[in-house]
Amino acid sequence: MGLTERAYALSESLLSEPLPRRWAHSQGVAQRARSLRSILGADADLMEAAAVLHDIGYSPRLATTGFHPLDGARFLRDQEGVDERVVRLVAHHSCALLEAEERGLREELEGEFELERPDLVDALIFCDMTTTPDGACTTPAERLDEIVQRYGPDTLVSRFIQRAAPEIHSATARVEQRLSRASAAQPI
Q: Is there a contact between 112 and 74 (Cβ–Cβ < 8 Å)?
């Protein structure tokens, strides 16, 4: 079984029954990753695997710290032996260091998991922040608003996502620029 097939099977086994909406979101994020193949090259499968696995830390079977990037990455590393680059992307997806800071877990996250290449970090931010909780496409602004509304304006998650908003917008703009350049370079 290849990396992406294994990633889908693992994510489905952890999310589909207890958290069907989270599973739908993860599938949508993976679909967005597939749409980036033209700019990802040899890392396309790696990104799709990270995309479908990025939220497994929400699974009740894995949630130990209550911080899903850390819980998911630890599980993938310690229990599943998943590719180290996928683990790093899951650990740091969507500006996780800022949320870790809010939770008092920044040193743990930084100490255990190195950052992946910036272009891949941007790509996963793009995929996650342009996908609704139900797996449909959206804009980063709509996604950020949805998160604040879902969690409430005075929550830790809302504080974090508002702090992360400038970087989320910048990362998605960088990915859109790369896509535009790749499209322009395609022969007609």
A: yes
